[in-house]
Predict the structure.
Amino acid sequence: MKQEIPKTFDPKAWETKLYNQWEDSGSFTPKIDPKQRPYTIIMPPPNANDQLHIGHALFVTLEDIMVRYHRMKGEPTLWLPGADHAGIASQVFFEKILKKEENKTRYDLGREKFVERLREFAVNKRVAMEGQLRRLGASCDWTRNKFTLDPDVSAAVYHTFKKMYDDGLIYRGERIINWCPRCATGLSDLEVEHQEVEGRLTYIKYPLSDGSGFIIVATTRPETMLGDTAVAVNPDDKRYKKLVGQRVKLPLTDREIPIVADKAVDKEFGTGAVKITPAHDPTDFEIGERHQLPVMVVIGQDYKMTDAAGDYAGLKINAARDKVLADLREQGLIEKQVEYRHSVGHCVRCKTMVEPLVSKQWFVKIAPLAAPAIAAVKTGQIKFIPDRFEKTYLNWMENIRDWNISRQLWWGHRIPVWFCKNQTGLISNIQSSMSSGERENFVVSQNRPAKCPFCKKCEMVQEEDTLDTWFSSGLWPFTTLGWPNNTPDFKYFYPTTVMETGWDIIFFWVARMIMLGIYCTGEVPFELVYMNGLVRDKEGNKISKSKGNVIDPIAMVDKYGADALRMGLVAGTAAGNDTTMSEDKVRAYRNFANKIWNAARFIQQRVSGLAGQPQRGPSGQASQKLTGMSLNDRDKIVLADFNKITQDIVRMMDKYQLGQAGELLYDYFWHTFCDKLIEEYKTQLTGERAEAATAVLGHILKNSLRLLHPFVPFVTEAVWQTLYEKEGLLLTQELPA
């Protein structure tokens, strides 16, 4: 029966139908073949709390290009999809919904009910998100789909926690952490972004205890002076050498504190003398440890002054600051105040100013994990594309600090630690004092111990905190494959081939995957890290809701088709570089999809006998074999040029120059094949040159569809099924030699 290509390409008429055919064919699910080396990508799991954004569309496009290309090379190719529970982000997001729609807080529901409701919410969002991934053409193996809170993945997380604790890599201690009052949890250093803010530098006189005068300190946070336990100067600062070892009267209190010398003090800041508040500043905390200074927590997690602040207890920070300044002025202890612009930490999620607080938390000792992870990159076991990110990675890893992995959340992996209920003060307390000296009796176990090994009678209580989301995400490349069990998938697909992700989470995620991968499995988790850039608008601004320049990828797919969006995201861009995106750009690449469609339609209409035999292709058998035909010198040059283009594309793809390969394909197909060759050959499609002309155009069209398929899978598959239906799906065809 005659099958002709319709006049126009309608993405809506094809995309869902084609995707269902691909998925139903089982082609996304690789078979384990011990004779072949697999190609494996574990998808960076999108957060299961909202719809996909344009950044997701970029990584989906890049990874789908990679896996379609390697699948067409005949390699067993696994692209394993998944979703992340996203502890802080999901809990904060859902709490806002709960407040808006029901005027309730999580405390109104209670922990168990809140987690149950949030899980239901995440499942629904995850299903919607997976539908969006399909709309973008993601050819991932849905039979292996994973979620960070799946029972088997969670079991692997708890197994890792216990293993690390038993190996002395996890400890519980009181250290300075970043506290976000809006998210109501501690944060790691990586979850804090520093922003320049306008403030004031206040110069305060601290009277020397012997009455001989004052030492003047400069501070942007006068309210924290209530927790000062020392004044520090640089040991090389000649101005203060005679004062080191003396004591000062701490204003507004009845305490005396020492003057100490420490190299960490900047002689050029303020007066060169600084107040030391170990409980509320990271540098002060380290100085305090070196000099064995006491720690006083004077600001609580509610941003109010604690009882340790004396007369200022219960005041919010700003109110306490005003009162402290007023009292200091009354006593004549303020020398001056000057305007001062300085950097202050803010939560990366909610943008609230964070408060450095001493808190009892769970930490990972990073140094033993970092050393082999550094060596893996230095020795080339893991390579970065582009390679400039190796230096970025190494600089950070060589100066890394211990990792705070506990979060004061309800949503996530609850820390598998059980405390004796009859002991006091054992559950984490953000405002507890380091000097308490309390003994803590606990058991690390995934399940509640049947009997308390300490008091022999109580029902043990579990740690309230959950694990940092990046802890479970750091295990993602192998827990998704069945580890710690030695499953067939783990044995065959691990280590994986490529980890493709944004350069902005190289420390959040990439570094932790490398450290935990080597520690848990003894092998690197992947061979190559492909870093993509950020998506910016056409003016170069970062895309964000606050700027009002958000581009909804699914809206673009609805309007112009998935192929147009994909080419707009990837063509002409390079790994590690930011890419610009606009609706105009997507619209332009819709025209490219139409160009492919119209070129195939023209050739089909002009080639004799093609319409009645769609399975043979525009050149009949000649598209499969050009030898033995009467090709003239021009034909040979045209075919040699196409062969050179094919080799260039394969070379670029093998080097992960995806954007360059896409741009070259676009340029060749549109400007050389369509604008020049079809025009040149169309008068030769009848008469004595018909067979050769048909063979040349047919050969280029058919193999161009193969090369283009990873980039624009829907339009190429639609053309292929119209012209070469009986040859099977284009998805499963081999690349041109």
User: Anything to note?
Assistant: The CA atoms of residues 228 and 277 lie 4 Å apart. The mean pLDDT is 90.
